[in-house]
Amino acid sequence: MPIPHTDVMPEAEFDTLTVSRGVGQPPAVDLLLPVDELPESSSSPDLVCRRVRDELMLDGNARLNLATFVTTWMEPQARELMAETAEKNLADRAEYPQITAMEERCVRMLARLWHAPHPEQVRGCSTTGSSEAAMLGGLALKRRWQERRRAQGKDTARPNIVMGANVQVCWKKFANYFEVEPRYVPMEPGRYHLTADALTAYCDDNTIGVVTILGSTFDGSYEPVADICMALDGYQAATGTDIPVHVDGASGAMVAPFLDPDLMWDFQLERVASINTSGHKYGHVFPGLGWALWRDAEALPDDLVFEVDYLGGSSPSFTLNFSRPGAHVVAQYYSFLRYGFEGLRNLAAQSRSTARALAARIRTIGPYELITDGSELPAFAFRLTPGTQGCTVFDVSHAMRARGWHLPAYSFPAPCQDVSVLRLVVRTGFTAELAGMFIADLTEVTRNLHTTLPTLAPPHQPLVTA
Ligand SMILES: Cc1ncc(COP(=O)(O)O)c(C=O)c1O
Predict the structure, then answer these.
(1) Which of 131, 177, 222 to mutate to test the pocket of ligand 1 (most atoms within 8 A of CB)?
(2) Interior CA angle at 212 toward 206 and 218, to 5°?
(3) Which domains does the chain have, with CATH numbers?
(4) 248 CB under 6 A from ligand 1?
(5) What is the pTM of this model?
(6) What is the pLDDT of residues 241-266, one digit of tens each?
(7) Cα 392 vs. chain centroid, distance in angstroms?
(8) Ligand 1 site, residue 168, Cβ cutoff 6 A
């Protein structure tokens, strides 16, 4: 059936137009297109596509982006599946019951991976990322606290949430958007994430929960979740106040299960009520996909869950968005089936081994001091040795940018604002060859900025990572 259209030039004329301008000629019409207001009329799809592509060339190369934790490489088969399902809306559960089934299976797989004592009782959903998952986790904590307080006849006016000053901005947003007082346990020189020591001084009857991070966005370190839970056990014994824990495993919940099987951080710890992760970080899916899981129905109050019955049965829904891409869930399902436990362990191990090798090498090429060494998340932070004259980490970052590498520099929050670091994140796709080129460039950049450099590694030497 012909598609009715308005005043659009027929396709053939567009073709003539394109051809008449000559293949390889700069298309004059592109230059005339307004970019801050809607063009008055339509243009050829080919011309516009070329125009958009040209603009996109100015963006960075995702594979050279060492700043992001987000997946920048996927197998062609996974890309194909995403392209084939690009039009599928996760919210249309009646139309796409199979994607819903895939989502539920992914939740079950994660529940088992995170040692839920009763995986069948776990409630969970996909989200657009860890930020949305964090909002949901925080909301559930808040609602549970309100219900408890109301049942005790106590007021619910001043909820607070306790977390390290190193939390990712999503937790600051949660506190702001959902009107919960944020209580940040500050960093100290040499302690750049939340630990059990200082924690309970920040807790009281109005604390809806404690957020712990696996691992920290600032430096890739794991927070000691088990110690934190133990400190809260002690606090409960002393005060009677039972404070649940949410684990923000945006990156680490897809790393630790494979590489740190002895680490206690997940649903094995009774106090852990909920966990989030980003499928689009070490879950090997392009952005944006996240997951939020609750240990059981008690951890996710019923009145936050909307029952959707499009499927004939009843399907619980608890997300901020309604319409969302189904393609990301399909890609996650693919990556779980494709790699399995062993494959995911190998990918994570490769990234960690590259990160550790890079960290070890960086120590030797200039006046650098490691804050972390890549042995937790495959990411680490390093700084210029205090007292280094003549350049800052911001200069290094800037000079690396000119070579195409995006290596971010930033300062830690007060009172550690004097600590300025560079952070490097290793993901699948950052090969040993790329790592070798990176080291060669960093060596040269450092030498140029800081002339008294010690002995240098040979340039463009592939990094031996394992
Ligand atoms: C610890 C932590 N939590 C939450 C987030 C936010 O995740 P997303 O980008 O998936 O929303 C990040 C992002 O880097 C993170 O590192």
Answers:
(1) 131
(2) 125
(3) 11-59 (no CATH), 79-336 (3.40.640.10), 351-449 (3.90.1150.160)
(4) yes
(5) 0.90
(6) 999 999 999 999 999 999 999 999 99
(7) 27
(8) yes
